[in-house]
Amino acid sequence: MQIEFTHKQSAHCENGVVSNLMRHNGFEVSEPMVFGIGSGLLFCYIPFLKVNHAPVVTYRAMPGLIFNKFAKRVGIKIKREKFSNPTSAQERLDENLAKNNPVGLQVGVYNLLYFPDEYRFHFNAHNLVVYGKVNDIYLISDPVMEKVTNLTEKQLEKVRFAKGAFAPKGHIYYPTSFPEKLELKSAIKKGIKETCRQMTAPVPIVGYKGIKTIAKLIRKWPKKKGAKVANHYLGQIVRMQEEIGTGGGGFRYIYAAFLQEASQILENEKLNELSKEMTKIGDDWRDFAVNASRIYKNRSPENDAYNKVADQLDDIANSEAAFFKKLKKAI
Amino acid sequence: MKKEEVPQDKGLLNSAQTKELTYAVDENGEYTTELSSGWDPKTIALNNAIQDIEERVAAAKERVKNNQTSPIEYYMELHKMDLPILSSYVGLWQWRVKRHFKPKVFQKLNQTTLQKYADIFDISIEDLKHIP
Questions:
Q1: Which chain A residues touch B22 with a CB distance below 8 Å?
Q2: pTM here?
Q3: What is the pLDDT of residue A317?
Q4: Is residue A202's pLDDT more than 60?
Q5: How many angstroms separate the CA atoms of B27 and B20, rounded?
Q6: Rounded CA gap, A30 and A26, in Å?
Q7: Do B13 and A256 touch (CB under 8 A)?
Q8: How far from the centroid of its chain's Cα atoms is residue A2's Cα?
Q9: What is the ipTM, given to two decimal places?
Q10: B residues 68..127 contacting A (CB < 8 A)
């Protein structure tokens, strides 16, 4: 069985799955719109969690939250299920496919064989859509891939039951009921308000303050941890920013695209101006990545180089603090 | 970022014959999307992480040879895992997995436990006992 499903590539997996599932159900909602309404943009440093032996910073909301918030704000309902038993997880998936219902799955990346080896880490919050099954081969629309792919029953079971942080436990999800018309205007405002609140939160590990905290840590790492570990940590920050889920720079551009679209829907020219400002902040994040990568490429860092990229992050934190205060006033 | 500035460096995705989608601004200031084949800072960061893993694997191999640890630790590193991840796959407390790193304890592990580890690493018990 194969469901008529249009695969559209996206920059980020969760937004992409939601946008593609919405289109399948007759609602054209762009990836940036999903991201903005779902308050996907974030900065958070998680001091007690280590991945690949380095501290974790995230540039996006927790897996699943974007879809939940999006759904609540535009008035659709979603069904989510998790399983302890792989057999019942597969039965439920097959049932849905038989009912012509493509579903979103949360999976682990390590055993996704269509990814290049270098990209396969133990990261369990990837999202994709299954839209059919031919014999024992599942048809997969992975939103970060250009084309559709497939996995065998066994391979899919492995990624659905990956273990570790954010273990997916066979998680499947799909929208179940829709309003006649999506309530975009109020949803956009709610989404923006929450992002502003998070990014300016008076908490030292969240939002612009979180960025400042990381900047402070970067200054200390070379002395405290030695060159090798400091380089590894800095590299991980860049990877989380730019590669694991299209982080900092990429997310800032998606958010800027969202603000531009929102400015038309709300007929608010101010949002279009702020979109340009966010694009500039995205560029700053990329400059940071360029300079940081230079440090650990040479492998013999000077303290000064660390201070320089930390200064850059401080500047970004200040720009974002000012930005989100303006954005809050604009709506 | 302007559309024409979307980086087209040689990246690791080439082997999978796919490109990444990025958002960028066109000549009229409108947001659009563009495919990117890769970006050097990203590739450097990723290569850095891979090199780190390779060093860990080599170090673990050395320790197995010197009888300082069991092959379980070597295979754990080889599969890019750390202690919390391996312990959740095998379904044992972290301290127990760590104990299995001790060569003396490893020698005495029963077949069931060895099979569990072998399954996780997708190898035979024989391979689990002898590293390449």
A1: 11, 246, 250, 253
A2: 0.94
A3: 97
A4: yes
A5: 21
A6: 13
A7: no
A8: 28
A9: 0.92
A10: 79-82, 84-85, 88-89
